[in-house]
Amino acid sequence: MDSVDSYLGQTLPDSPSLGVQSPVSSSTPPESVDPLLVQQTKAEIRRLVREIAQISQSDLPLEEFFEQFLGRVVSALASVGGAIWTMDENGSLRLRYHVNFSQTRLAEDEAASARHALLLNKTARHAQSVLVPPGSVTESEKDSGNPTEWLLVLGILTGDDGVQGIVEIFQRPNGGPVTQRGYLRFLTQMCDLASDYLKNRRLRQFTRDRQLWRHTEQFVQAIHDSLDLRATAYAIANEGRRLLEADRVSVAVRRGRKYEVLAVSGLDTIDRRAEEVARMSDLATVVAATGEPFWHPAADTDLPPQLESVVGRYVDKSHSRTIGVLPLRPPDETAEPTERQDPSPVGVLIVDRFTDSGDAAERTSRAETAVRHGAAALGNALTHHSLPLLPLVKGLAKLKSAFGPRSLPKTTAVLAAAVATMLGLALIPAELRIRARGILQPAVQQHIFARIGGTVEEVPVVHGQMVEAEQELVRMSNNDLELDITTLVGRKTSTSERRLAIQGTLLKHANLPPEERNRLSGELTQLEQSEESIERQLELYRRKQKQLTVRSPRPGQVVTWHVSDALQERPVQKGQILMSIIDPDSDWYLELDVAESDIRHVIASAKQPSAGELDRDESGNGNDALSVSFALHSHPGREFEGQIVEIQKTAEARSQGEGIVVVRVAVNETELPELRSGTTVNARIHCGSRPVGYVWFRNLIDTVQSEVLFWL
Questions:
Q1: What is the enclosing helix (H) or strand (E) of 197?
Q2: Could you list the residue range(s) of the whole structural domain that residue 706 is in?
């Protein structure tokens, strides 16, 4: 900042970025400088310098940093333009960003461009910032120099490996030596800030590379750890998600002509009937047919119609911002594509990102690593999985050592014990008890609904209060209804007054002309009809007004907790539940939720399983109903008995997946310690005797029968 103040104190160059022109030139006396304008310009330059210092410590992409850096430097120096040259891998300078580079006209003159290039290379070799006057030629290299009409201010960008680039400023040559040296000092300081950005960027790149190598090592080790197809697919999906820094990675494997989703990162199981999984499979099949990696959105938006429609359907369902579909080909298939009998990929990697995708180059590099190693691992797993009689070979390998001379007695004893155990499991009886959860509630209970919308004014009942039939429960108001009634009453009054006036006119004036009498008679008829219509509307509105007072339909007890606090001065809608009333003196029963897979045992053990409701005697209990043991959560140490009296004829879906069937159980309320509606219970339904093996392993046997044997 000292150098800025030093040359600003001498002269102030033209500053188009500030929207002002310098009052000072090389021929203008210092007394003509406006001090206020000088201070404003210095403040603006200091602001630009602070912004440059801030972005040099940021993590901006390189191109964006060059754009913001050079723009602010050009504005601060009020120069014509500038350019940033960086070293490529071969040690040559390459133009990375520029401002008004066309005004130098170097691109129009090949010889001038060559001289300029030699000047830049010499500056880079000496690694020293310089000022080059317009039209000058260097002494050591006659072919290099400044062929432009502008003063060239060259600053060096340095790094740990030496010169990283050059910042070139095209400045007007009308400033004095002090001013020009101020330009150079200012640019040198700004280049130091830019060099700090390049060093920090390289350090961050080293950190990312180290993290990438660690993730790659973990990825490779995990995917090659097993030859099991499913385990390998899940390892590719889960470890690939970390390697690719994606939100979700899925693996699809070829099944005939289609590709089936085998693994999704973060999920233990996959519902293949889900719409998103089906669309993912369609996307993998279409992209695999092309044989090329596909990224969405891509630079080329012209997609084939069949691919565009599939991608659109998947994006609509998944809401992904970036999608990568990468075919997986093992190394032996990619080496000689002309000799492959089946060119289709063995699998497809589907990458989803729900936020911005970040650096595209780094994304592509990570994807190539994941595809190369993932294809090899998946190909090995598929080859191993396709071996004939693989399960039998594995089993024989394990049994080989068991039948050796030394192990034969032990093996014989183990087999005998296993046979005895299996016979015991098949022959020893045990009671089959179906577990269920449910609630305790009375047979007579009723929800009180709002028959009309309104605002609750008063709730004259409280929780636990006993109420009689037709007793007021809730009083509501409805301003719109009252306004409608008032409007109709007003219309009725005005109509009645007009009707009476016409009747009086017809009685007083017997000599009215026929036309006038006919007109008044017709109007009188219309008024009478209108008055009747208004009266009918008033009757309907008064009925609605009566419904604002909610009354109890039966005697009972209010069981809604804090009913007044929940409803007082709050608007309610038509059909909304206001409270619940039960009859505590009625019979009580249990409603048990029995799993759909278990209800067949309950029905099979009942007297009449085909009937939804079992035979009942006068007490309401079934003659030969199944007994149920249950315990209240409020009294876990005691056990009570009941009998099934009704089985629901339909199954209900539950959010957990499997459906349930409601079973009603009659209980003796006199034996229960406490009658509280909604009390949770755990119950066991006694379904007779079954082999002990089936009782113990019933869930496993049912799963094998439904999920394995059914599909064979």
A1: helix 177-223
A2: 587-711
